[in-house]
């Protein structure tokens, strides 16, 4: 069974952490799992987002997994998150997309929904 996790919760919200822990559990069970970061969930991909030393860093936790980390490009740009290509295209001064994450269009989400057995939104 394949699972798609649509992550819309910001990293400061407990649901974002639940999505991460479920993804880890599914991977341990050798199940097919895909994720897609959308709406406020894209803020996890901001490498400039500061996390206090006494807290776990959700961005770094996602980066440790061996899966694709697609991020909605429109939602990311609307929240000030960009890669080098989009920074140049939109004449922005710098990029801040964390390594391991990639900006993609909503077509990728549509494909993932179509090819998954179940969709869970966090």
UniProtKB/TrEMBL annotation:
Give a Pfam family name.
DsrE
* GO MF terms, alphabetically ordered: sulfur carrier activity; sulfurtransferase activity
Tell me the keywords, alphabetical order.
Answer: Cytoplasm, Transferase
Instruction: Enumerate the InterPro entries for this protein.
Output: DsrEFH-like, Sulphur_relay_DsrE/F-like, Sulphur_relay_TusD/DsrE
Q: Which Gene3D superfamilies match?
A: DsrEFH-like (3.40.1260.10)
Q: Which GO terms describe its biological process?
A: tRNA wobble position uridine thiolation
What does UniProt give as GO cellular component? Answer: sulfurtransferase complex
Q: Where in the cell is it found?
A: Cytoplasm
| Similarity annotation | Belongs to the DsrE/TusD family.
**Entry's NCBIfam families?**
PRK00207.1, sulf_tusD_dsrE
Q: What is this protein called?
A: Sulfurtransferase TusD
| Native source organism of the sequence | Acinetobacter larvae
């Amino acid at each position: 069974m394949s699972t798609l996790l649509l992550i819309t919760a910001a990293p400061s919200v407990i649901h974002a952490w639940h999505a991460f822990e479920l993804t880890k559990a599914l991977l341990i069970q050798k199940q097919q799992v895909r994720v897609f970061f959308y709406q406020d969930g894209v803020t996890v991909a901001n490498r400039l987002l500061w996390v206090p030393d006494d807290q776990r860093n959700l961005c770094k936790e996602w980066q440790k997994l061996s899966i694709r980390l697609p991020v909605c490009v429109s939602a990311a740009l609307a929240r000030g998150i960009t890669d080098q290509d989009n920074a140049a295209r939109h004449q922005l001064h710098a990029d801040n997309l964390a390594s391991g994450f990639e900006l993609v269009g909503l077509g990728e989400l549509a494909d993932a929904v179509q090819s998954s057995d179940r969709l869970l939104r966090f």
